[in-house]
Amino acid sequence: MNEEIVAQREYWNNEADAFSRIYSHxxxxxxxxxxxxxxxxxxxxxxxxxxxxxxxxDRTFLDVGCGNGLYSLELARKGAKKVVGIDIAEVMIGLCKxxxxxxxxxxxxxxxxxxLLAYEGKSKFDVSFGIGLFxxxxxxxxxLTKMRELSTDKAIMAFPRYWTWRAPVRKVRLNARGCDVxxxxxxxxxxxxxxxxxxxxxxxxxxxxxxxxxxx
Length: 216
Known about the structure:
The chain is of the alpha/beta class. The chain has a single domain (3-215), classed as Vaccinia Virus protein VP39 (Rossmann fold, 3-Layer(aba) Sandwich), CATH 3.40.50. Helix content is 45%, strand content 21%. The chain has helices at 3-24, 29-38, 40-52, 70-77, 90-102, 141-150, 166-175, 186-196, and strands at 60-64, 82-87, 109-113, 125-130, 151-160, 200-206, 209-215. It has a seven-stranded mixed beta sheet, with helices on both faces. Helix 6 links the parallel strand 4 (125-130) and strand 5. Helix 1 packs parallel to helix 5 (90-102). The longest helix is centred in the first third of the chain and has 22 residues, at 3-24. The radius of gyration is 16 Å and the shape is globular. The two termini are 29 Å apart.
């Protein structure tokens, strides 16, 4: 396991509970209000991803960097045949498994602690997606390539945009906590998607993000 993954795993193990509270809103009214302003992109990318996973019924999905399982569990609720979520942080995977068992979704929702490049699942998926993933990967091309290889229909990704007021603020804040973060231009995304072998792709601006659909 390389140093980047080790550092990211430590960071997300420590942040697991705080991250979950962004979506559960188990915070003070002030904190929730601030999240609705400064973390609006997080809610918008969720809506975007679930929408573009359609059709969901009886299809299979790979959630790369699944975090607390928010997306995976929602797809299972909506009738997905099988959802596999992978994440490098064991605390996140524990939260996912507990939530799936609590909702009786663990017959269709499976979670594994691993990095995508080390993932050894032999079956392909209709759709793979990586949301809140490429922010933290210094070399995204191998990950994009494997997502394309594991998908039979499409892959959905989110990339933080380079030229926004929040980018330098976020970089300084996360770097100070030992977490590297990366930003992307639209031209860089096009280059990566072409190199990864996607037949075509769409780039949608969602707040301070580029949300991308790559077609296999």
